[in-house]
Design brief:
Protein name (chain B): Phosphatidylinositol-3-phosphatase
Shape of chain A: globular
Largest sheet of chain A: 7 strands, antiparallel
Structural class of chain A: alpha+beta
GO molecular function, one term (chain B): phosphatidylinositol-3,5-bisphosphate phosphatase activity
Strand order of the largest sheet of chain A: 4-3-2-1-7-6-5
Radius of gyration of chain B: 27 Å
Mean pLDDT of chain B: 86
Largest interface: A-B, 115 and 105 residues
Number of strands of chain B: 16
Strand content of chain B: 5-15%
Mean pLDDT of chain A: 94
Number of helices of chain B: 22
GO cellular component, one term (chain B): nuclear envelope
Family (chain B): Belongs to the protein-tyrosine phosphatase family. Non-receptor class myotubularin subfamily.
InterPro entries (chain B): Myotubularin (IPR030564), Myotubularin-like_Pase_dom (IPR010569), PH-GRAM_MTMR6-9 (IPR048994), PH-like_dom_sf (IPR011993), Prot-tyrosine_phosphatase-like (IPR029021), Tyr_Pase_AS (IPR016130), Tyr_Pase_cat (IPR003595), Tyr_Pase_dom (IPR000387)
Oligomer: heterodimer
Distance between the termini of chain A: 80 Å
Strand order of the largest sheet of chain B: 4-3-2-1-7-6-5
Radius of gyration of chain A: 26 Å
Number of strands of chain A: 14
Shape of chain B: globular
């Protein structure tokens, strides 16, 4: 298909752009296959360069022959374009609608994007499972890297290489896979160096109503326990939901068959409920006519903060089992691709200082989300404004980022990256020029040849010029486990995402700049003082002056 | 006098988790002290008797007799005393101690910071309101200093020095004062020189349904005439209309626009002291709940109405500010008696209009003027003496809360940080210094406070480095002489660092404010060191480049800011050190296998945060009956 077919009017003059907290701009609107571009005639600069993929919904209005298109973006921004001429306006609107809802992955912008920078460090090769395993091997010999899923046939949503207990052979893995939803048999997620305890993740066991069991599955997870030790299974669903799952062939681990494990049920919501939550909180934040009471009641009704608290609490619980109880943990929900990953990845942020660095966090996203088969493309197909019927959209990853932000706010000196880094990741999961978040599984990414045909987000982010913006000036490596508070009074609304386009941050930005200045100036002064001291010491020794320093 | 001096083996329960500490409880004439036992560098809690709002003896438990103490600085402590008799002794002693009946019993009269008389006197002279009115350009051709209240004869709750329009003669003033509640006639409290517009304050007129007073009408006319920029004067009645209407039946009320031809009348709807008292009580109840869910928290915030009230006050101050700075009109502000809501609105308005009040000293001046001198009844509102509980109300706390909300929006506008506000709140209730004692200037003079007590301002100025805002920018004030805050509801937030100031587990474990303040202090020390070193080098005959550090380039692309720079502030430097010590201990206790290298970094403890104490661990028990999760919902029998 040619994009040109979808663009009836590629260019309109005299278009006026309205954006919150910015002056209006008049200019020429151009439509390309992937972008909506507005350049002002004054100085030839592009005022707006918007990916069609970022457009969540549009609204059209007409007053006489003046048409207005309200563009609602997936990053939650809302802009308004006044377009002279009804026909032009209709054409533009139709084109935007068509271009922003293309279903075919191969037509996505990352396949057309050519970087304007030289790729020095290819992000596609940065975080290979083999490398991660080498690190694990240096700590323990209890695990092995299995190629059982090398053609993605045992578990379509797992990567080709998975880490499993050394004593479990591939045949057992195959059998265990048949007992788990979508073939997601228990694999290693995290190894806690301090005490050798581990977090494993899987999907629900297919016990069904008849109470099926699988010796290989039991053996597999028991193999992760040290002699005499017991572990915890954290089921992210309530017991009621887990019970209901039995009727559909799913279920949970029966005590009788897993006597060395204790099961704990939590209540992380399912995807469609999370999406509703997102829609409601965004609606509340965009309504400027709220009274105090209505604002609070809408915030409450959105349940967003409750989701954050529940996810964080579960992650803290998993981390507590590992670090405090000295017990290993198996985490799963239903499919093991959403709430499970929220919990395992957040637990690692709490436990593992390396995950709080830029590289470590990228590795975590790569390992626990991309390789682990979180279906980004489905979850992020639509955002909070879309009028389309919801399929499997859900802000699962955004909630994870929100939780990370909460921890970052409570430990502002313990993260190498800043809030902007998290916001940037949120944006790129919904619309991006990079291929990183395309596809739903590792298998699909291989099939799409993303690593050859698209540029990795990490290739761009890790360039020093870009990275600078994402670094936290307050960072001081903290080797401790960091336990966040999950009290409602400690959890905040993530204004950087939800109020980003609804307020002016000029005063806050300037204050932040001043803080950075104080920090930088301190470093400079220390260097200066040290060099003066050295100079003085050298002189004194050279001249052997009798003066006391 | 007391039955006992100390009780041993007392347990202190944390109110949000199951952590207990054992120690000894000491009762002194001024403090209740808890000292953790058998720990080197033991944790101590000092509670001033004046800070105690209530003591409750709860029903006996197996481990002893629980004693619940709630403080005005939002500290809540829960002791368990092993023997009921001891508990009763502590209880009854406290009851007696925390209800002083005469001013002489207050701490301020026995507190001695080891200063001599001269220092004491200098301390009391630090804040000078005459100088403040001079700063405002007063007296001037339209406003004069009146001696009508020199002997507190016209209004005993006003200060002696009052500024009135030059055209307001003595008979007009006296006549007007007779037509106003408690004689609180309209006087100037702030003068916006740029537009020659005045902010005046008073109490409600005794208008009833139809009464009028020509002198009062003249008074308002005089205020209006004193400002050539505007043909009228705004009259802001800060009460809800319904309250004002109800007052008419009692012979009070509000100005009739027909009688005062030159006014524009406006209600702004701030609730009365009783509503505010109940609101804070409800708020504290909600946030004091254990295992509070997010939804109950948000619903509780809403139903307490606290943030709604805070917003109402800020809205009123913005209205006042706009009238004065944009329209150039003078404004007369009143409520019922003109010492609660009026003080809130005038003080907050002045803070928005005048950058001077956003400096540390200026803020003291503002409080001295709008609150202390104009007779905000600190003694009654803060319950300094055993009095009518219906007179107690968090009016001043609300003002501090409003200021904090502004700090959140304008992090560079204030010379002081929220630590200063919290410390002020502490001392408004501590009765340790003389400034806030009593209900009016006249009463303070009668108590001879300047001779018998010390000034808080001197104390605060002496340790002002603790209260400075590291990112404060005087040039911000030049660019924004008038603050224009946004009043979107999301800008009004629950002030955790105030209402949970003693609940350590709720706060960020690393404070950006503390960090930045430390760096800023270190910067000035480093500058000094560098200069000294350079001087030394010079004496050695080496010329060094002058200390011109190429300052960090401002053209830097801006990294995004964290949402707020004010994160987790310990109460004072001393408290901060204690915090750190405790955290140090925490880390020590947490550190695995005595891995000492990790201890210096701040960490936190899982058990304190209460997301699930796995009460039974497998290694110790074979068949745990229950995995109990305090914060988590899971409570299941395995």
């Amino acid at each position: 298909m040619e994009f040109a077919e979808l663009i009836k009017t590629p260019r309109v003059d005299g278009v006026v752009l309205h954006r919150p907290f910015l002056p209006t701009v008049e200019g020429t609107l151009c439509l390309t296959g992937h972008h909506l571009i507005l350049s002002s005639r004054q100085d030839n600069t592009e005022e707006l360069w918007l990916l069609h993929a970022n457009i969540d919904a549009i609204e059209k209005r007409f007053i006489g022959s003046l048409g207005t298109i309200i563009v609602k973006c997936k990053d939650l921004r809302i802009i308004q374009l006044d377009i002279p001429g009804m026909e032009e306006c209709l054409n533009i609107a139709n084109s935007i609608e068509a271009l922003s809802t293309l279903d075919s992955v191969s037509l996505m912008y990352p396949f057309f994007y050519r970087p304007m920078f030289e790729v020095i460090e290819d992000g596609w090769n940065l975080f290979l499972p083999e490398e991660a395993f080498k690190e694990l091997e240096s700590m323990t010999d209890e695990w092995r890297l299995s190629e059982v899923n090398k053609d993605f046939s045992i578990c379509p949503s797992y990567p080709a290489l998975v880490t499993v207990p050394k004593d479990i052979d591939d045949d057992s893995l195959c059998k265990a896979a048949t007992f788990r939803h979508g073939g997601r048999f228990p694999v290693l997620s995290y190894y806690h160096k301090k005490n050798g305890m581990v977090i494993m993740r899987a999907s629900q066991p297919l016990t069904g109503t008849s109470g099926r069991r699988c010796k290989e599955d039991e053996k597999l997870i028991n193999a992760t326990l040290r002699a005499g030790k017991r572990g915890y299974i954290i089921d992210t669903r309530t017991i009621a939901v887990a019970q209901q799952a039995k009727a559909r062939g799913g279920g949970f681990e029966q005590e009788a068959n897993y006597p060395q494990w204790r099961r704990i049920h939590k209540a992380i919501e399912r995807t469609n409920i999370l999406q509703e939550s997102l829609i409601k909180i965004v609606e509340a934040c965009n309504d400027h006519s709220n009274s105090m009471d209505r604002w609070l009641s809408k915030l409450e009704a959105s349940n967003w903060q409750s989701q954050v608290k529940e996810i964080l609490t579960t992650a803290c619980l998993a981390a507590q089992c590992i670090d405090r109880e000295g017990a290993s943990v198996l985490v799963h929900g239903t499919e093991g691709t959403d709430s499970t990953l929220q919990v395992t990845s957040l637990a690692q942020i709490i436990l593992e200082p390396a995950c709080r660095t830029v590289r470590g966090f990228q590795a975590l996203v790569e390992r626990e989300w991309l390789q682990a088969g979180h279906p980004f493309q489905q979850r992020c197909a639509q955002s909070a404004y879309s009028n389309e019927k919801l399929r499997s959209e859900a802000p699962v990853f955004l909630l994870f980022l929100d939780c990370v932000w909460q921890i970052l706010r409570q430990f502002p000196c313990s993260f190498q990256f800043n809030e902007h880094f998290l916001v940037m990741l949120f944006e790129h999961t919904y619309a991006s020029q990079f291929g990183t978040f395309l596809g739903t599984t590792a298998a699909e990414r291989v099939k799409l040849k993303l690593s050859q045909k698209t540029v990795s987000l990490w290739s761009w982010v890790n360039r020093p010029q870009e990275l600078e913006r994402f670094l936290n000036p307050l960072y001081e490596p903290n080797s401790l486990v960091i336990w966040p508070s999950v009290a409602p009074q400690s959890l905040l609304l993530w204004e950087g995402v939800f109020l980003r386009w609804n307020r002016s941050t000029k005063c806050l930005d300037e204050a932040y700049e001043e803080m950075v200045h104080i920090i930088e100036y301190n470093k400079e002064l220390q260097l200066k003082v040290n060099s003066l001291r050295r100079q003085l010491a050298e002189l004194e020794t050279e001249d052997a002056l009798p003066q006391t320093p | 006098m007391l039955h006992l001096d100390f009780v041993e083996q007392v347990k202190l329960l944390d109110r949000f988790n199951n952590k207990t500490t054992t120690g000894t409880l000491y009762l002194t004439a001024t403090h209740l002290i808890f000292v953790e036992s058998n720990v080197p560098g033991a944790h101590e809690i000092w509670i001033l008797h004046h800070h105690i709002a209530s003591v409750e003896k709860l029903s006996l438990t197996t481990s002893g007799c629980p004693l619940l103490i709630q403080c005005r600085n939002f500290r809540v402590v829960h002791f368990v005393v092993p023997r009921e008799r001891d508990c009763h002794d502590v209880y009854s002693s406290l009851l007696r101690l925390l209800r002083p009946v005469s001013y002489d019993e207050l701490y301020a009269f026995s507190y001695n910071p080891k200063q001599n008389e001269q220092q004491r006197e200098v301390g009391w002279q630090l804040i000078d309101l005459t100088a403040e009115f001079e700063r405002l350009g007063l007296p001037c051709d339209q406003w004069q200093l009146s001696d009508v209240n020199r002997d507190y004869k016209v209004c005993e709750t006003y200060p002696r020095d009052l500024y009135v329009p030059i055209t307001a003669s003595k008979p007009i003033i006296v006549g007007s004062s007779k037509f106003r509640s408690k004689g609180r006639f309209p006087v100037l409290t702030y003068f916006y020189q740029e537009k020659k517009a005045a902010v005046c304050r008073c109490s409600q007129p005794l208008s009833g349904f139809s009464a009028r007073c020509l002198e009062d009408e003249h008074m308002l006319q005089a205020i209006s005439k004193a400002n050539h920029n505007s043909r009228f004067v705004y009259v802001m009645d800060t009460r809800p209309k319904l309250n004002a209407l109800a007052n008419r039946a009692a012979g009070k009320g509000y100005e009739n626009e027909d009688n005062y031809s030159n006014i524009r009348f406006q209600f702004v709807g701030i609730e009365n002291i009783h509503v505010m008292r109940a609101s804070l009580q409800k708020l504290l109840e909600v946030v004091g709940t254990r295992s509070l869910s997010v939804n109950d928290y948000l619903l509780g915030l809403e139903s307490s109405g606290w943030l709604r009230h805070i917003k109402a006050i800020v809205d009123a101050a913005i209205f006042l500010t706009k009238a004065v700075t944009v329209e150039g009109a003078s404004v007369l502000v009143h409520c019922s008696d003109g010492w609660d809501r009026t003080a809130q609105v005038c003080a907050l308005g002045a803070l928005l209009m005048d950058p001077y009040y956003r400096t540390l000293k200026g803020f003291m001046v503002l409080i001295e003027k709008e609150w202390i001198s104009f007779g905000h009844k600190f003694a009654d509102r803060c319950d300094q003496l055993d009095g009518d509980p219906r007179e107690v109300s968090p009016v001043f706390t609300q003002f501090l809360d409003c200021v904090w909300q502004l700090m959140e929006q304008f992090p560079q506008a204030f010379e002081f940080s929220e630590w200063f506000l919290i410390q002020l709140h502490e001392h408004v209730h501590s009765c340790q210094f003389g400034n806030f004692l009593g209900n009016s200037q006249r009463q303070r003079e009668e108590l001879q406070l300047k001779d018998r007590t010390y000034s808080l301002w001197a104390h605060l100025l002496s340790e002002q480095h603790n209260y400075l805002n590291p990112v404060y920018s005087p040039s911000f004030a030049e660019r924004h002489p008038v603050l224009e805050p946004s009043t979107q509801p999301w800008n009004f937030k629950f002030w955790r660092n105030m209402y949970h100031q003693f609940d350590r587990t709720m706060h960020p474990r690393q404070s950006i404010l503390k960090h930045t303040l430390t760096l800023k202090e270190s910067n000035s020390k480093l500058e000094d060191t560098a200069h000294t070193l350079q001087a030394k080098l010079q004496t050695l005959g080496v010329s060094t480049s002058p200390l011109e550090l190429h300052s960090w380039s401002r053209e830097h692309r801006l990294p995004p800011r964290p949402q707020s720079l004010i994160l987790g502030a310990p109460l004072s430097r001393k408290e901060a050190q204690q915090e750190e010590e405790v955290l140090g201990e925490e880390a020590l206790e947490d550190a695995p296998d005595g891995n000492g290298g990790e201890r210096t970094v701040e960490g936190s403890s899982a058990t304190e945060n209460g997301y699930g104490e796995l009460q039974s661990s497998f290694s110790s028990k074979n068949e745990p009956a229950m995995v109990s999760l305090e914060f988590g919902v899971a409570r299941m029998t395995c």
